[in-house]
Design goal:
The complex is a heterodimer of chains A (about 270) and B (about 120). Chain A is built from eleven helices and seven strands. Chain A is α+β, with helices and mostly antiparallel strands and about 270 residues long. Chain B has one domain (about 1-120). The chains are: A alpha+beta (about 270), B mainly alpha (about 120).
Amino acid sequence: MGDNDIKTVIFTVQRFNPEKDKNSYFQSFQVPVKRGTTVLEGLLYIRENIDSSLAFRTSCRMGICGSCAMYINGYPHLACHTQVEEFHSGKLVIKPLPNHKIIKDLVPSLSEFFEKHKEVHPYIIRHDSVEIEERQGEFLQKPEELSAFLQFSYCIKCGICVAACPTAASDIKFLGPQALSQVYRYCADNRDEGLEERLSIVEKDHGIWNCHFASACSEACPKGVDPAFAIQLLRRRLLMYSMHLGIQTQRTKFADKPDTVKGKIEVPQYTAK
Amino acid sequence: MKNTYLQLVQMISGILAGLLLAVHIGVQRLDVILGFLGIYVSNTLSFNSMIERAKQISWVTLYIMLLFFAMLHASNGLYKISVEMNLSRTSLRLSIIFIILVGLIFFILGAYTPITLFMK
């Protein structure tokens, strides 16, 4: 396809309006596409020119917010990150993300997904209150300590990994690859002191040991987070912890207060306040 | 840490059952390969050979251990499947009791033959 060539692709979209429909159905739209047109742009064309009632989520349009995750030609993708040309087909079948409830058309309900995310306490847990009470300070962290968890912190919470997960499809209570990988992300962070707390959460039924290691989550993740790898690392950590062989992570130290370090340029008083 | 310990049991019992099964299959079926390794066994599938093995404490122990680890592995696996099936609390309890009972019955039935043969 040349830069200015325009061809027509049929978008077959799953429709469902809970106020009117008992079951979902498919509706086809003819969408003109050119080189570089994304699936999201095609959907926006449908909404602006053919059917304004078509519902789907979108926000950043550059693969960062994770809003536009959907099931395109039998595989979960970010619609803004996926070009129509990639499929080498004149027909696209677009459905909402599987393993999530549907609100309307291509809009999945992510409430349960975020409940599970919240359940694993996805934040730095400290047993002291030094960070809160002495806000001027900061924790020291070496580049290699950062790289231990950096990859797993790229998660954009799009829900694609859960949509690809065969265990999440059969066990609705399963914590899911997103939540489990975030547990490892915080456990591997040397500023965090919530290891025991989180391990007791993921250790329960429908937790980490229910992962069948299909690795579909890692294959589907649009940000390269590799949740399956995080789950394996977390399993090792959990086993070592349960056998009291604990992997000793060197906890980070609190940096000296900035007032003991003189900057080269004096910060004017009014900006400091 | 209940599930972690159960997973450890599952891994260890799986490895041990696999090793013991390898010894069993090796002796029963792979006499040519064992001969190549310098271990000579013959007629292992004959009745007399089996009775002879059943009189030796090492073989009886091996078979009972194999049975024990296999039943432990299978019961634990069935328990994990029943947890994943999202059964109600009562159904889950009933299934656990059923799995334990079936496991025990199979173990007793399986262990009965080598023990009685050894005692004769």
